[in-house]
Specification:
The complex is a heterodimer of chains A (915) and B (285).
Chain A: E1 18-23, E2 26-30, H1 36-68, E3 81-87, E4 90-91, E5 104-108, H2 118-139, E6 146-152, E7 167-169, E8 177-181, H3 187-203, H4 211-227, H5 238-248, H6 255-258, H7 271-275, H8 287-305, H9 309-319, H10 327-342, H11 354-360, E9 371-380, E10 391-402, E11 408-410, E12 413-415, E13 418-420, E14 426-427, E15 436-438, E16 442-445, E17 448-449, E18 458-466, E19 469-477, E20 491-496, E21 505-512, E22 515-522, E23 526-529, E24 540-550, E25 553-564, E26 569-574, E27 578-582, E28 590-595, E29 599-600, E30 617-622, E31 627-630, E32 642-647, E33 655-659, E34 666-670, E35 673-677, E36 685-686, E37 690-693, E38 700-701, H12 702-705, E39 710-719, E40 732-736, E41 739-740, E42 746-750, E43 756-760, E44 784-792, E45 797-805, E46 818-819, E47 828-832, E48 836-843, E49 847-855, E50 862-871, E51 876-880, E52 886-889, E53 894-898, E54 904-911
Parallel strand pairs in A: 2-3, 3-7, 5-6, 6-8, 20-26, 45-48
Antiparallel strand pairs in A: 1-2, 3-4, 7-8, 9-10, 10-11, 10-16, 10-17, 12-15, 13-14, 13-18, 18-19, 20-23, 21-22, 21-24, 24-25, 27-33, 28-32, 29-33, 30-31, 30-32, 34-43, 35-42, 36-41, 37-38, 37-43, 39-40, 39-42, 44-45, 44-50, 46-48, 47-48, 47-49, 49-54, 50-53, 51-52, 51-54
Chain B: H1 2-20, E1 25-34, E2 46-48, E3 54-56, E4 63-69, E5 74-78, E6 84-87, E7 94-102, E8 105-115, E9 126-129, E10 132-135, E11 141-149, H2 155-159, E12 162-165, E13 172-174, E14 185-193, E15 208-213, E16 222-227, E17 230-236, E18 242-245, E19 250-258, E20 261-270, E21 277-278, E22 282-283
Parallel strand pairs in B: 1-7, 8-14, 15-21, 15-22
Antiparallel strand pairs in B: 1-4, 2-3, 2-5, 5-6, 8-11, 9-10, 9-12, 12-13, 15-18, 16-17, 16-19, 19-20
The chains are: A alpha+beta (915), B mainly beta (285).
């Protein structure tokens, strides 16, 4: 049958269709003309443009992902979608009808423009015939019954890497339900995407109100179906099917890493980016692909424990279409379905009620939030490793601004990534990772974290600050694959917040049906192991425990249920990582400055303050605008940020549920000028427990930074007298503050033009194990100052001493100075004052300069420089390497560097030295 | 590992250029980006000092390392687009002029730099965007000429961060979003800067703002905000004559009294709490 010649059903269709976008992959096209060919052309054009856009937006991320895993298969990108034709704003009546038990059949044209090659048609028919039972089991019977026509729309595809993936239209204007599908070169890609498109046909005219559901459920079901043994034709290669899923459907092992707030929102691709011509290059990175993949992987977790969840949920939505746009109702329904499946009330998903689980998955956040957003997407590089590669990661940043209407502006900027070792010393892998330029919303660096601990894995905490946004991820360096152990592990991760003392040991135990593995030692906050058990590769429920052993007594710190997909898994395990934070004394009536010490699970809404939207007064000062952003134009409150809020009545029991790392140093980014910030920890933090980091500098004390990088004073808010009309404080005063108390907000002024990052240390930090060094005691017979300089390679360390004394002279003084014995080729640190000196004490001067020679280095290996003030006073230490890069240290601080030559000569300057 | 290696090679080259160049040369390290794609130019662009040897940008990230005579102040970027000329500070040692944006079209970006608290125009502010620089005039206005632009896609253009610095002000940033070109000009309006030599933090937020005149003579004026017949806020005006309120949406009336003096009642309709209602000045009588 050739539809072009078929008369329409008296509907007014148009050539120039108007588009609206409810969801990323669901298009409404208004039609009012009889020109069916133009309607088809428009539909095809819209879908293909969408495919090209999405492919362009995600190309770079897909390439990186394939490179990182050593995948050679080039899988075409596709994104099946749904088109709804409307007339006068109303969807055309579905061509399919509802029956008591629905089923679909498919039909192909035998002639005309939309005929498939016969072999390809046979493949699609074979997929359909084989997969229907599994589709019905996983996704439930279709919402309607009848015949769906499958037609070839491949003719004008011009980009084989960006095929639109096919689309379903419930009524094509001629009274037929139709799937328009391309001709894939790869049979497995065709099969997977045909299943995806068939599931869209199963949904038919019914749908969910947000991509997190519509896309997520369909993608999870597609993965489940395609991976079910026997569900697909046996002519297809399961490995190729897995390659297709791995490329564009499944986020893979790293769900924990990517579970970040910036993913959330009602649609996955903003309307402005979808409807305008988009940058075709890969510069925009992978946020969009990541959203699609994370949504499918989130619901895949649900299917692990409740294989019938999606099927039952769909049936409920078919029976009550309004449910599809009721997020609260959907959550309640999911809990009911879980209870029904498990046969008891209070059933859980990953150990949590559905509501608690749902709000912990940031990709499932359906609310629209405004403001700048930053997402860090690390990819472990586990193939092609060589040389000193130990912990190699591509660290990508996606930086954008969401407007009130949901439009996204892809921002540019500069970040100075901060890499922390397990003891929260800043690591400088190489200078090329010191800076990340972000353009078009995307930037990346590829650090190789060196082998600091003689082959042991360790945790690297990465903070990516841009202006006043900061995103953090915890990565296990040396735990996945290294140059010396290139076979990737399949179980790896990090542990945060464990209350470690010297002598404690930490381990992880992982159980899955029929097996328990562990204890897996956690070294320096990280672990990695190859389970060597094929059953571990299954999609299944894991029980993960973190066990602390102290004095031979084990204590389970954390038990977490994790639903994993097929293959390996990365775990980011936070002890005490979530909870309810009750604001001390709640929130008072009137105007107030509040700050967040937790990362709330969900966007704050007026309802959280028991207010309607037009009553909520919430504001945050934006120095870039030099004015306040006022609700609803203000960002959704974030951890470490402060806000003015004005409440008509006190809320003495105000609390927030969210993520927190109470025992972990936590960063807050500040932009130049005035910032409203808060302690990111649920405790009062004195300034003596805060380090300030400026661009590529080493962290310095708050007191040292005050007056140089940040303002000398910072301010808290004190409510004024009640307004005589409202009876509530409507004004107040800003008074000098001395510490950052939890739940409160503070004004901090940043002078440094590039901004700073402040690292808040808790009173009992869990950052161990610290490397403990017993600094040698230097006996000096005269007053002065002495600094011990230490060079270490992870296994050994050598020292030299620089100092000043009132009794010293420039010349060698055997009472104070010591010569270094002749070198024997090993690692050595010496001071050069005409001779190689072990101890060089110069005359007292407020600024003392030394030449420092590092000997016996092995180029490419990492070393540490440490400093320790043994007596007297030194304000700061500046070490300048041969590239003229200067690092500014406080006594007691150190840094890591990669040797570039066997001998390196640096300059070291001690400032503010004295008694 | 390709990206890493390429970046490494680029930086290695940069290091060599800095260390091995003759005394009369500078090493210029930068990046060329395409305003139509937000990414590196493809095909590669060529960067040169006018009339001298050029280098190609890196395929992966658009970066380049150019050895040029010390004191170089102009870079020419040629590509599939019209040539772009960028003026940079006199190069010496290793110079990093930042990102140089190119595109199919050129526009002038105009705006005005204003003090956020006094609304006084700021002269002499240094404004940069997309590799183009300008200085604000006496009335605070600036024009950035020949900025790369694409009329078919503003996604990347809007994301470019501009920088403004001025003596005694906090450096600030701006973007052109959501403005588009009209007759070859993208007008972004006022960009506010905050004085850095003022240790006082900003005042409280508000969504109603007004002044009682005469300035200096209105101090002590009681401004009453009412919703219907009910007074909901009272503000005591200071020497600057300014009053503000932060209130939910509603149609408010404002009355003024100072002893025997008063001013005509005003209306303030707060439709959205994110929009500031500027009430016309009133004068005590």
């Amino acid at each position: 049958m050739d539809l072009i010649t078929k008369p329409l059903l008296g509907l007014a269709l148009v050539a120039a269709a108007n588009l609206s976008h409810a969801q990323s992959s669901r298009f409404k096209i208004e039609v009012s003309s009889r020109a069916q060919t133009s309607v088809y052309a428009k539909m095809d054009s819209v879908v293909r443009n969408y495919g090209r856009v999405a492919a362009g937006l995600t190309r770079h991320a897909r390439e990186l992902r394939q490179q990182s895993r050593g995948l050679q298969t080039r899988v075409p990108f596709s994104l099946p979608s749904t088109v709804v034709l409307t007339s006068n704003g109303q969807p055309l009546e579905p061509a399919l009808s509802r029956l008591a038990v629905n089923s679909l059949t498919i039909a192909f044209d035998s002639s005309g423009s939309f005929v498939f090659p016969s072999a390809y048609q046979a493949e699609l028919q074979s997929v359909f015939d084989t997969v229907v039972p599994t589709m019905n089991a996983v996704f439930g019977p279709p919402s309607t019954s009848g015949t769906v026509y499958v037609r070839n729309y491949d003719a004008t595809i011009d980009d084989r890497d960006a095929v639109a993936g096919g689309y379903f239209v419930a009524n094509n204007g001629s009274g037929q339900a139709e799937i328009r599908f391309p001709v894939y070169q790869n049979a497995e890609a065709a099969a997977v995407n045909f299943v995806h498109t068939l599931l869209l046909a199963y949904l038919g005219p019914d749908n969910y109100g947000w991509d997190a559901f519509q896309e997520g459920l369909v993608r999870a079901a597609t993965m489940k179906i395609a991976r079910t043994p026997g569900a697909m034709p046996n002519t297809l290669d399961p490995a190729q099917i897995e390659a297709v899923l791995d490329s564009t459907y499944d986020v893979g092992p790293t769900y924990d890493w990517y579970n970040q707030r910036a993913l959330g929102g009602p649609v996955f691709i903003a309307a402005n980016l979808k409807s305008t011509q988009l940058p075709p290059g890969g510069s925009l990175g992978g946020l969009y692909l990541l959203r699609f993949q994370m949504s499918g992987s989130a619901w895949q977790k649900a299917l692990v424990e409740y294989p019938g969840l999606i099927s039952a949920l769909n049936q409920d939505v078919y029976g009550n279409p309004a449910l599809g746009s009721d997020v609260s109702g959907l959550q309640t329904d999911c809990q009911s379905i879980m209870d029904s499946i498990s046969g008891h009330s209070g059933s859980t998903l990953e150990g949590l009620s559905f509501h608690d689980w749902f709000r912990r998955q940031f990709i499932l956040e359906t609310g629209q939030t405004q403001g700048q957003k930053l997402l860090v997407e690390p990819i472990a590089i586990s193939s092609g490793l060589s040389g000193t590669d130990f912990g190699v990661f591509a660290v990508q940043a996606n930086y954008f601004l969401t407007a009130l209407n949901g439009d996204e502006t892809l921002l540019s900027g500069t970040s100075y990534p901060i890499f922390w070792d397990p003891a929260f010393n800043r690591i400088f892998p190489t200078s090329q990772e010191d800076r990340m330029d972000v353009a078009g919303g995307y930037g990346s660096v590829t650090p190789n974290f060196p082998d600091f601990f003689s082959g042991q894995a360790y945790r690297v905490v990465i903070d990516i600050p841009i202006l006043d946004q900061v995103a953090r991820v915890n990565l296990p360096a040396g735990a996945i694959a290294t140059a010396t152990n290139p076979a990737p592990n399949d179980l790896y991760g990090t542990v945060e917040n464990a209350p470690l003392l010297l002598g404690d040991s930490l381990a992880v135990t992982v159980s899955w049906p029929g097996s328990t593995l562990g204890p897996i030692p956690v070294t320096n906050g990280a672990f990695g192991v190859n389970t060597a058990d094929p059953t571990f590769q299954n999609a299944q429920k894991l029980t993960v425990q973190v066990v602390l052993t102290r004095n031979a007594s084990p204590n389970t710190l954390l038990t977490r249920i994790v639903d994993k997909g097929p293959g390996p898994i990365a775990l980011d395990l936070h002890v005490d990582g979530s909870g309810t934070y009750s604001f001390p004394n709640g929130l008072p009536a009137g105007i107030w400055m509040a700050g967040l010490p937790v990362d709330p699970f969900a966007s704050l809404t007026p309802a959280d303050f028991n207010l309607s939207a037009n009553q909520l007064l919430l504001a945050r000062y934006d120095q870039t605008l030099a004015q306040y952003r006022l609700y609803p134009d203000v960002e959704s409150p974030k951890i470490g940020h402060g806000y003015f809020v004005r409440l008509p009545a006190a809320q003495p029991a105000f609390s927030l549920d969210g993520r927190t790392d109470p025992n972990t140093p936590t960063a807050v980014a500040l932009k130049p000028g005035w910032n409203m910030i808060a302690s990111p920890l649920p405790e009062s933090v004195p300034t003596s427990s805060i380090k300030v980091i400026r661009s590529t500098g080493v962290p310095i004390d708050y007191a040292t930074s005050a007056g140089a990088d940040i303002g000398v004073d910072f301010f808290r808010f004190v409510q004024g007298a009640p307004d005589s009309a409202s009876g509530l404080p409507e004004t107040g005063s800003l008074v000098q503050a001395t510490s950052f108390d939890p739940g409160l907000a503070y004004f901090v002024r940043v002078i440094a033009p590039e901004g700073v990052t402040m690292l808040f240390f808790p009173s009992n930090p869990s950052v161990g194990p610290f490397s403990t060094r017993n600094a040698a005691t230097l006996a000096t017979s005269s007053p002065g100052w002495t600094v011990q300089l230490t060079l270490g390679d992870g296994q050994r360390q050598v020292d030299a001493f620089a100092g000043g004394s009132q009794a010293a002279t420039r010349a060698f003084d055997p009472r104070l100075d010591s010569l270094m014995p002749p070198g024997i080729g090993g690692m050595q640190i010496v001071l050069i004052e005409g001779q190689r000196m072990y101890r060089d004490i110069q005359p007292m001067n407020s600024t003392a300069k030394f030449s420092l020679r590092l000997e016996g280095l092995i180029p490419g290996l990492s070393y540490t420089i440490g400093t320790s003030l043994l007596n007297g006073r030194v304000h700061d230490i500046r070490i300048t390497d041969e590239r003229s890069v200067t690092r500014r240290l406080m006594p007691g601080q150190g840094f890591t560097f990669i040797a570039s030559a066997k001998t390196q000569v640096w300059q070291v300057m001690f400032q503010g030295a004295g008694l | 590992m390709k990206t890493r290696d390429l970046l490494f090679a680029t930086l290695l080259l940069a290091g060599c250029g800095g260390g091995g160049g003759s005394a009369g040369n500078a090493t210029i390290v930068g990046r060329v980006l395409d305003v139509q794609t937000g990414g590196p130019p493809s095909p590669q662009a060529s960067v040169s000092v006018p009339s001298q040897t050029s280098v190609l940008t890196a395929i992966a990230d658009g970066s380049f390392v150019l050895t040029a005579p010390a004191g170089t102040t102009q870079l020419l970027v040629t590509s599939s687009y019209p040539p772009f000329t960028f003026t940079i500070p006199p190069a010496s040692g290793t110079a990093t002029p930042g990102d140089l944006w190119i595109g199919p079209e050129k526009v002038d970006v105009t705006g005005r730099v204003v003090d956020s608290s006094t609304a006084v125009p700021i002269a002499g502010a240094s404004v940069t965007l997309a590799g183009i620089s300008a200085t604000s005039l006496g009335d605070g206005t600036f024009t950035l000429p020949n900025v790369a632009y694409s009329s078919t896609s503003q996604a990347a253009f809007w994301g470019i961060t501009g920088n403004i610095s001025a003596t005694n002000y906090f450096a600030t940033t701006f973007t052109t979003a959501p403005n588009v070109a009209a007759a070859g000009i993208v007008a972004i309006g006022d960009v506010l800067m905050t004085a850095s030599n003022n240790p006082n933090p900003p005042g409280a937020p508000y969504d109603i703002h007004g002044r009682v005149l005469p300035i200096g003579g209105s101090s002590g004026t009681v401004v009453t905000l009412s919703l219907g017949a009910t007074a909901v806020r009272v503000f005591n005006v200071g020497s600057d004559g300014v009053y503000t309120f932060w209130v939910p949406t509603g149609s408010y009336t404002i009355s003024y009294s100072r002893g025997s003096q008063s001013a005509p009642q005003q209306n303030a309709n707060v439709v959205q709490t994110n929009t500031i209602v500027d009430v016309p000045d009133v004068t005590l009588q």
